[in-house]
Amino acid sequence: MQDRQIRVIGIGTGDPEHLTLQAVRALADVDAVFVLDKRAETADLVEIRRRICAAHIRKPHRVVTVEDPPRERRPADYGRTVEAWHAARAERLEEAFAAHLGAGEVGAILAWGDPALYDSVLRILDHILARGRVPFRRRVVPGLSSVQVLAARHGVPLNGIGGSVLITTGRRLAAGWPAEADSVVVMLDGDPAFAHLDPDLTIYWGAYLGSPDEILVSGRLGDTGDEIRRVRAEARARHGWIMDIYLLRRDRAATDRAGAAG
Question: What positions belong to coiled-coil segments (predicted)?
Answer without folding.
Answer: none
